[in-house]
Design brief:
This protein is 35% helix and 26% strand. The protein is α+β, with helices and mostly antiparallel strands and 319 residues long. Belongs to the thiamine-monophosphate kinase family.
Length: 319
C-alpha cells in the first residue's frame, strides 16, 4: 500500500456527526461550529522511546494517544467534537496499524469524536493528535481563575500510572492481584470529560495531571498569582499503591510521577455543596488535598502542618 491507500483503508472511517461538512479526503476539513460557542483546541505529540516504549501494545497506544488529548479538553470543560491524526511510521505493519486503529477509534466512538483529517509519513515512530471541542461562551475553565481561600481538589487516585511504569521497568514489585490494575492505569488513561463539563459553573480553575501534581499545580499558582499548600496525608492513594510501596514512596509517585490524567481544580467554599452534588452524579471520586493562599506563586508541601519535602520533580522534557 502507498500512503493514500493506507489512509483510505484504515482511517477513512464513516462518521455520524452532522457538523462535519468535509472530513478526510480533501485539502482541509470543513466543520460547522455551533452559534454562541467557543472552539477549544489542543495538540500533543507522542514519540517512541520518550512517551512510550517501542514495543507498547498498539491497541493501548491508539487509546492513549487520543485519551491524553481528550484530557486537555476535559480540563477546559469542553465538549469533544473532532480530531486530526498525524502518524509517522518506520514501515507499514498492517497488524500494528489495525490494532492501533482499534484502540483509537473505540475511544473516539465512545466520546462521539470524528476523525476529520491528518497526515501519514515515513520515519521514526511518532503520533501527533489535535483535538477540537466546543464550549459555551464564557464557560471555559482556565488556570488563571483561582482565588485565595479556594480549596484544591483532585479526581481519582494519584500515582498509579507511575507505579505501573515502575513495574514495567522492574523497579517496583507490585503484588499479583494489582499488576493488571496499575498497567491498565499506565496504558489506558480515562479522560474526565464529564467531570470537566460538570465543573464549568463550580470550579474557579482547572488542569489535567500529566506531569505530576506538584509541577502541574504550579501552573495554576503562576497563572493565578497565588501560593498553594498541599497536605500530603490527604493525597488519594489506591489499594495497589498501599500494597506495593511505602507511604512516603506513594506520596512521591502521586506528586511527581505523572501520566495520571486526572483533574486538579480549585473551588470557592461557596460552591462546595454544588460540587458534592455535581460530581456525585458523575460517579467519580474526588478529594480535597489543599488550599490556595495569597503569596508568591509556589507549591508548598505539609504533613500534619509541618513542612514536608520530596526528592522527585515533575516531568520536564529538557531537564
Amino acid at each position: 500500500m502507498n500512503e493514500f491507500d493506507i489512509i483510505k483503508h484504515y482511517f477513512n472511517v464513516h462518521h455520524h456527526r452532522k457538523d462535519v461538512v468535509m472530513g478526510p479526503g480533501d485539502d482541509c476539513a470543513i466543520l460547522q461550529v455551533p452559534a454562541n460557542t467557543l472552539l477549544a483546541v489542543s495538540t500533543d505529540t507522542l514519540v517512541s522511546g520518550v512517551h512510550f516504549f517501542a514495543d507498547m501494545d498498539p491497541e493501548a497506544l491508539g487509546h492513549k494517544a487520543l485519551a491524553v488529548n481528550l484530557s486537555d479538553l476535559a480540563a477546559m470543560g469542553a465538549d469533544p467534537c473532532w480530531v486530526s491524526l498525524a502518524l509517522t511510521l518506520p514501515e507499514v505493519d498492517h497488524d500494528w496499524v489495525t490494532q492501533f486503529c482499534a484502540g483509537f477509534f473505540e475511544l473516539a466512538e465512545y466520546y462521539n469524536v470524528a476523525l476529520v483529517g491528518g497526515d501519514m509519513t515515513k520515519g521514526p515512530l511518532s503520533i501527533t493528535v489535535t483535538v477540537h471541542g466546543t464550549l459555551p461562551e464564557g464557560k471555559g475553565l482556565l488556570r488563571s481563575g483561582a482565588q485565595a481561600g479556594d480549596a484544591i481538589y483532585v479526581t481519582g487516585t494519584l500515582g498509579d500510572a507511575a507505579l505501573g511504569l515502575q513495574q514495567v521497568l522492574g523497579k517496583v514489585s507490585v503484588p499479583d492481584e494489582h499488576q493488571e490494575f496499575v498497567r491498565f492505569k499506565f496504558e489506558h488513561p480515562h479522560p474526565r470529560i464529564l467531570v470537566g463539563q460538570a465543573l464549568r459553573d463550580i470550579a474557579s480553575s482547572a488542569l489535567d495531571l500529566s506531569d505530576g501534581l506538584l509541577g502541574d499545580l504550579a501552573h495554576i499558582c503562576r497563572a493565578s498569582g497565588l501560593r498553594a499548600q498541599l497536605e500530603v496525608e490527604h493525597l488519594p492513594l489506591s489499594d495497589a499503591m498501599h500494597a506495593s510501596v511505602s507511604q512516603e514512596q506513594g506520596w512521591e509517585l502521586a506528586l511527581s510521577g505523572g501520566d495520571d490524567y486526572e483533574l486538579c481544580f480549585t473551588v470557592p467554599e461557596l460552591h462546595r455543596g454544588q460540587l458534592d452534588i455535581a460530581l456525585g452524579h458523575c460517579g467519580v471520586k474526588f478529594t480535597q488535598v489543599g488550599r490556595m493562599f495569597a503569596g508568591e506563586p509556589s507549591v508548598e508541601l505539609v504533613h500534619n502542618d509541618e513542612p514536608y519535602q520530596i526528592t522527585g520533580q515533575s516531568w520536564d522534557h529538557f531537564r
